[in-house]
Amino acid sequence: MIQLSELWLSSPSSRTVSDWPKATVRVVGMGNSYAGQLKTTRFEEVLHNSIEASLRSNSLVPRPIFSQLYLEAEQQLSALEGGSRVDNEEEEEEGDGGLEQNCPPNPYQMHPPPEGCCTTDGFCQAGKDLRLVSISSEPIDIPAGFLLVGAKSPSLPDHLLVCAVDKRFLPDDNGHNALLGFSGNCVGCGKKGFCYFTEFSNHINLKLTTQPKKQKHLKYYLVRNAQGALTKGPLICWKGSEFRSRQASMGACSSSLFPPLDSSGPPAPFPGEPGPGTAPSAPLGAPQAGPASDHPALTAALGPAVFNGKDSPKHQPLVKNRLSAVPRPSALGILSNSGPPKKRHKGWSPESPSASDGGYPQGGGNRAKYESAGVTCMPQVGLVGPASVTFPVVASGEPVSVPDNLLKICKAKPVIFKGHGNFPYLCGNLNDVVVSPLLYTCYQNSQSISRAYEQYGASTIQPISEEMQLLLTVYYLVQLAADQVPLMEDLEQIFLRSWRESHLTEIRQYQQAPPQPFPPVPGAVAPVTSAQLPWLAGLAASSCNDSVHIIECTYSLAEGLSEMFRLLIEGKLAKTNYVVIICACRSAAIDSCIAVTGKYQARILSESLLTPAEYQKEVNYELVTGKVDSLGAFFSTLCPEGDIDILLDKFHQENQGLVSSSLTASSVTKSAYLDVSGAPACTSYHLEPHRIRPFQLAVAQKLLSHVCSIADSSTQNLDLGSFEKVDFLICIPPSEVTYQQTLFHVWHSGVLLELGLEKEHVTRQRVEQYVLKLDAEAQTKFKSFLQNSFQNPHTLFVLIHDHAHWDLVSAVHNLYSQSDPSVGLVDRLLNCKEVKEAPNIVTLHVTSFPYALQTQHTLVSPYNEIHWPASYSDGVDLYPENKKYFGLSEFIESTLSGHSLPLLRYDSSFEAMVTALGKRFPRLHSAVIRTFVLVQHYAAAMMAVSGLSQMKNYTSVETLEITQNLINSPKQCPCGHGLMVLLRVPCSPLAAVAYERLAHVRARLALEEHFEIILGNPASGITIGKHFLKQLKVWQNIEDAEWRPQTYLELEGLPCILIFSGMDPHGESLPRSLRYCDLRLINSSCLVRTALEQELGLAAYFVSSEAPLEKGARTEALESDAEKLSSTDNEDEELVTEGSTSEKRSPVKRERSCSHDSASSSLSSKASSSAPCGESSAGPSQAERARSPPSCGPLEEARAPGERQRLRAAGGPPSVISRHSPGLTPQPDPSLKSGQRVQVSAPSASSSGSASSPALPAAGPLVLQASQCSMTKACRQPPVVFLPKLVYDMVTSTDGSGLPKAASLLPSHSVMWASSFRPLLSKTMTSTEQSLYYRQWTVPRPGHMDYGNRAEGRVDGFHPRRLLLSGPPQIGKTGAYLQFLSILSRMLIRLTEVDVYDEEEININLREDSDRHYLQLSDPWPDLELFKKLPFDYIIHDPKYEDASLICSHHQSVKSEDRGTHRKPEDLYVRRQTARMRLSKFAAYNTYHHCEQCHQYMGFHPRYQLYESTLHAFAFSYSMLGEEIQLHFIIPKSKEHHFVFSQPGGQLESMRLPLVTDKSHEYIKSPTFTPTTGRHEHGLFNLYHAMDGASHLHVLVVKEYEMAIYKKYWPNHIMLVLPSIFNSAGVGAAHFLIKELSYHNLELERNRQEELGIKPQDIWPFIVISDDSCVMWNVVDVDSGGERSREFSWSERNVSLKHIMQHIEASPNITHYALIGMRKWSSKTGSHEVREPFSRCHVHDFIVLNVDLTQNVQYNQNRFMCDDVDFNLRVHSAGLLLCRFNRFSVMKKQISVGGHRSFHITSKVSDSPMAVVPAQYICAPDSKHTFLAAPAQLLLEKFLQHHSHRFFPLSLKNLGHPVLSVDCYLNLGSQISVCYVSSRPHSLNISCSDFVFSGLLLYLCDSFVGASFLKKFHFLKGATLCVICQDRNSLRQTVVRLELEDEWQFRLRDEFQTANAKEDRPLFFLTGRHI
Q: Under DSSP, is residue 277 helix (H, G, I), strand (E, B) or coil?
């Protein structure tokens, strides 16, 4: 045997394929003379030496060299792990240390027998006679699972010795399936437990001279004859079958005798046990153990195919241990220690899983290394041309005639794969052969592998040669099992690995080093020559017992083909599955082809070459032409009484009378369950309310964020800001049920109301226009959708393509598209030019199987893919839900070891019958045969359950289980709720046949009212009988007489068989009452990943997450009710006992049923905990125990899921409990009154920690079953799924990456692999990584709609507004995308809405009640003369100053409590009141707004460069600052016309100003300045819409350090950059500079225009200073009933800023006003506020400032807060007019970033984490106080706002005695009022003679404040003074100059400073008291 494990294990790379030409191999054993020496030999030498040595050996030929070299690990792994019988002789010879054939054999050294024991031949060592003749009539006690066999002793040739041997260690009829090792008992002395045959042979005195071998010495089975005497029976078939050596040679292990590790259950005692290791541990009286002769009729009819109604041994499934053709490197490391040992160690029992599982997760490493058992992807893999070719591909030479009766003789059409070179013409009976180019394509693809390395300059790397390809193919075919079919993908992987290994060093070199000009030449490789090829191929095939036959031709392939046909006709290829024809005559190249002649393989391959359409056509043809009649005739004869229909009719007549009476009886008993209202009481049935689950919400939010990121990208592909609402259209496949289901979802989600698409009371008809069924009528509906989108550019249309993997046919690249409008409909509609180009349509593809949309040519960007999130991340449950999704991976997991009953199963007896009939009816498609067999099984099962028990043998155990549970489930529910069985029949005509037949049988058996049979056809709705319709209406409380169920979900609880037809499921959801998903008829021959997962997706399910789904508890949680033949009535025959809750809390896991067999579940009669159905309250003892009281409503919520006891008879084996066992069924005493409880106890295993103490109302025995409605289980366990064997193996086996084999299939029919040179998918890949894998490695076929999309790699091939949502089937994607529509709509509304401040004006009650109001209510503009007479209102009414100090005027005599309720200091940061407003078309916008109109305004047009701008310095001197101010303007090119330059591009001279007399409506005259900080993104600087497109000059005033970021976001805006000294200044500095600059500019413009003859006073003197948060402007329309009338009505509307500005600018005498402003908007505005059109008061936020009049009134450049109030007071005191237009209002948006919030006061000591409180803002001079990093002025203002009562204690809440504030207004907090006076001569001040002040505030006072000025005012005794100066020196000078010490008393400790360091220039305070 050639062992390569050292070689592989030493290599760090996954060298699964050896270096062909120079493999370093260690050759061990098998008779090679150079055993153990390391030799470097050429491949051929290794091959020849090995084969030569094995030919010399006397045992069977070993496995071919290929499997040793390349498939090493898999074989050894399967042999070791699976406990399989590879070839016992061969294995044991190897295991016993290589008998070297070159030297004479060593004689066997027998151990000497122990002293004193018997050594007589024929007796055991204990002296008991074992000879058959002596003990044939004696009773012999043999344990279960043992057989009596006869052993031959060399010393007693005429006698047989009787032995008892465990049958698992014996072979079946075909010589297969014997476990390695031995287990036997001595029947003489009774000694048990011999684990070694050597030991046993010693005990029975065989006295051998050679190594003891059971194969040589156990010769015959012993059977009892009619007289009961033991006689010699048939030979034990150790070597005797045609399959044996082939199986042996490939090391396959087909054993259902020994369940492989995955199932880790005990070994099955019966050879006929079906299924993947489901075995009871004891016979349990089941009728399975009888020999096949029990059923002579059946056995005769089916020949060897059926064995006791189950698998014939010939068709034993090769359960889990197939070899994979693609070795898995990860398996190599565990060869040494995994799986059961070759011989049974005493310490290893078959019941336990492997003691050392070699680092593999249990069941992972030894899953079926599934090749392809019959499931071939050949039609899809790498196929370029049409899928099936029944004519020659490339032909040459003379034609070959196909014999006429080929199919009749062969029983299958041979499939001929064209290989290399020329292929001859075929003529004659072409219908009986199939020719395919797939292998040719595969060879071609593999030849191109090396191109991938050409970029490295790797010219020396040669592709794999044709000879080597063919040789590898032969090796591959040789090691395929009898029931495996070649898979092209496996061949590709083999070629790839072989090539990689042979060029490993070169590849590594090119991957690591930069390409060199002269790469090193690798060592010379001696290739296989074409002359050697036939000989090597023959040698390789010589070991496979003729499974592969090689034909060598001399001249052309034609002679080889003719020879093959001759052999076929002569029947000489009966055992041959593959014929390889090689013609190596041409010097340069070889011709080859491979014919598949095995019946099984040929049938599957030829069927797999049919497209789905051809498949349907073929089946139709067979049905229409009556070909199937022979099959029907065959079935009707299977019945013991002849024709089944005769038996049915007989039964019908006999039972007609009985049935009607039993029905009335059952209806009487049902009335017992009616509750008071007369409705049946079943608490298990409730329809789930519609609610969104956390997962769906998360996915909806992911979708939304993807849409937002499309909008946010700079590509301008989606302008969300321009949409006002959302509309949608959902496109679905043409399935009526899916259509109704989607309508239902849309209707119940409320999405139409939420989107505002419909008003209240949406009718179903209205919903229909939002769902489009893609059928013939789709186009008109779609056109109206497009028209609608075109007419409503401000609506965002979401086009949802649900089930998007369906119909990806191209409308362009298609032969039929012109003639047939339905071809390529999806492409024609969804990919039309209008959809692609419409800027307001977003396409969302939704699918569970996105693979076909993830190709190299896809339209969907990988960034626009949304994958359903995983529920767990690092073990954390991300989205806790009360339901857990149970999908494909969970189903697969249930088949692993450690679970009770797997939810995925296959039916071996069904498969066996199908295989047998396939040979009998070779011309029928297997789909037809499968359907007829299955329908027959269902019919027989119905008959068996109805009482014709003799029919049990004509159905399979699985079908009988399904039928029993279907018919019996309604009997266990008071309302008759039952379960649904889904029978999937893809082909519609076959579905119709099945429906008719089952309906007929049901009618004859009088079961019409027991269950319904529904034919589910995509094209039509659901039809059900009146009886069941009535039931559904009662259950669902439906009054409507016209109601019919329209979706499968509405069949909840209906006992029915749903025959589900249609080639593909179209997304139909199934109800929770689905218990069985029968997929045995799915078209398993043409498997691709999408098709497979789509079928399995039907069973996807949500289970109640309270059910523990971890492995240990899977038994209870997912009990699958698979009672087999051992019980007749078993779905829910459970004793209804209330499990005590101690069970739930018990840490002890309940005892698990130790069986994996379906047949054993009746052992566990389950006690289900349930709330007693008639009870509303529970006694205290129960309430204490139960998690929730029983009255809590739906039963599922109240019960502990999976809670039931496995009842055990104490200590003994499990006892069978049937419902008819009187001793155990609790019979409540009828004498008990209903209020009392009856205690029902049942035996329970002590280990389970559970006790039964149920409480049941005594309402008669039937109530016991009341809660056992099948619906109770429905929410707790997923359905059981039955699969074809091929699919089962495909799904449950894993490939090299640990993924299910199915995942590595071609992803979809419509795509193909881009290259053979691709890695395998990996188990660790996320959905995103899988998507990228498919995007890299698959390309669409020419018929795919993406085929013509793009050159690979070009990003612009993606469609920008296209998204793909993928998630597992039935997980809730519809709910998620409907939720997405809702939140998208909310977001769009939110984008068009804004939070604006909505606060009432404050201090309304303090308004002066003078008679002087502006009474001209209808004036559009203020009358100057009237206005001058109005008094100025000093009171601040702006709500943002609610915390500011009140300003007193002489008119008020205010009581202190009149002031509005003040906020506590901690409320200062409470959110101010806002209202959400819809943006009007005249709003100002921030940077997130993009629309077509503003692109140019914003400077973001894709067709333009970003606007260039220039930086201009502008200097002017200002005496107060004592220096020249240098400002910078950034002026975009597009705005230069607003400015005057000395020459083009020269020095900036001034900003142009218009004339007062200009009357244009096209522009706004006043330049607008907006000071801003920290709001480059959020500031509302886009005034394009606000100005209604009018020309205007807008300048952003920014700080120097923010210049760059503002310029980036607003490239087309003019910026005024403040000098760097103002970087830390407040808004006062900006206002000050704006005003000074504007005045300076006004003078420049006057001078400039004076030269043009214009008077200086005609230059426009106004500017606008606007906040950066002004969003909209409103006007109030007043309708007054007359000039003086008190009655008037008013309304407010939104207008453009242009309208307001032009109105203000048109005011007469406007230049006489210094400040003009407007109201702040509030929803609470009262009529008294708008009654007067104008007020003379404070203006804020948006002001129009006359810079000419206010030349001598400055803003205080040091101020941070209240600078506008301060300025308003200065302007008024200067005698100027402030006018507020009350009928205009401005809305201010709440912006939570930037502005005054950007000033943070922190400690200068950086490591101090403490927050600084306002009390720490000042300190004593020269103290060691922590200095703060903040401007002194800010600290001062903040301190005074919060702590001014420390300076002015008398002023607190003392409104009658305010603080006198000279020349400034500082906010002293809301508890202190101030009185403002100006020291300027001629200023307007209030009369202060009435006031006695409580304090005096002197802030940086100038020379106008003199001692005499202060002497005018009166102060309270003890009033306080605060003087604030720039430094301590000026503080002292001020005290002296103002003679303050005359009236005020100062102390040294009353001096303070702001907490600034000296370099930050602190402010100094001095406080004193009035004497």
A: coil
pLDDT of residue 55: 53
Q: At 391, which amino acid appears? A: F
User: Which residues does residue 485 pair with via DSSP β-bridges, in sequence order?
Assistant: none
Q: Distance (Å, rounded) from C-alpha 965 to C-alpha 1131?
A: 5
Residues 1813, 1801: Cα–Cα separation, whole Å: 9
Q: What is the pLDDT of residue 1056?
A: 97
3-state DSSP call for residue 913? Answer: helix
What's the CA gap between 91 and 1957, in Å, rounded?
Answer: 93
What values do phi and psi take at 1888, rounded to 5?
-100, 5
Q: Are strands 578-583 and 548-553 parallel, antiparallel or unpaired?
A: parallel
Residue 1691, C-beta contacts closer than 8 angstroms, at least 6 positions apart: 1676, 1677
Residues 218, 233: Cα–Cα separation, whole Å: 12
Residues with Cβ within 8 Å of residue 426, at least 6 apart in sequence: 391, 392, 399, 400, 401, 402, 433, 435, 561
1839: nearest Cα among 1853, 1823, 1828, 1851: 1828
Q: What is the pLDDT of residues 569-580, one digit of tens each?
A: 999 998 999 999
Name the 3-class secondary structure at 1798: helix
Tokens of residue 298, six digits: 């059946």
Are 131 and 159 spatial neighbours (Cβ–Cβ below 8 Å)? Answer: yes
Asked if 1433 and 1735 touch (Cβ cutoff 8 Å), the reply is yes
Tokens representing 679 are: 């409705």
- Strand 1074-1078 and strand 1280-1283: the pairing is parallel
What's the CA gap between 1596 and 1576, in Å, rounded? 10
**Number of other residues whose CB lies within 10 A of the CB of residue 989:** 18
Give strand pairing partners of 831.
none
Q: What is the C-alpha to C-alpha distance for residues 1268 and 1131, in angstroms, rounded to an integer?
A: 10
Structural contact between residues 1171 and 1254, judged by C-beta atoms closer than 8 angstroms: no
- Residue whose token pair is 């005559």: 585
Give pLDDT, residue 452: 56
**What pLDDT digit, counting tens, does each position of 785-819 carry?**
999 999 999 899 999 999 999 989 988 876 554 55
Global pTM?
Answer: 0.66
Distance of alpha carbon 1242 from alpha carbon 1251, whole angstroms? 8
The residues that bridge with 1509 in the sheet, in sequence order, are: 1532
**Residues 6 or more apart from 514 whose CB is under 8 A from it?**
none
Neighbours of 1620 (CB within 10 A): 11
Give the pLDDT confidence of 860-876 residue by residue, as tens digits.
Answer: 999 999 999 987 666 66
How far is 864 from 1362, CA to CA, in rounded Å?
A: 7
Whose CA is closest to 1453, among 1858, 1068, 1090, 1162? 1858
Distance CA 1495, CA 321 (A): 67
**H or E stretch covering 498:** helix 488-502
For residue 968, the surrounding DSSP H or E stretch is helix 957-968
Closest CA to 38 of 24, 48, 50, 51: 24
Integer Cα distance of 1798 and 1788 in angstroms: 18
Q: Which residues, at least 6 apart from 1706, have a Cβ–Cβ distance to it below 8 Å?
A: 1421
Pairwise CA distance, residues 1581 & 1570, whole Å: 8
Cα→Cα distances 1286→467, 486, 955, Å: 32, 13, 20
Token pair 């205009």: residue: 1784
d(CA 1408, CA 1452): 7
The token pair at 878 is: 């991300």
Q: Are 174 and 237 in contact (CB under 8 A)?
A: yes
Q: Write the CA distances from 378 to 815, 1092, 1368, integer angstroms.
A: 23, 15, 27
Q: Are 1656 and 1560 in contact (CB under 8 A)?
A: no
Burial category of 1016 from C-beta neighbours within 10 Å (exposed 0-12, middle 13-18, buried 19 and up): buried
Euclidean distance between CA atoms 914 and 929, whole angstroms: 7
Q: What are phi and psi of 1256, to 5 degrees?
A: -130, 140
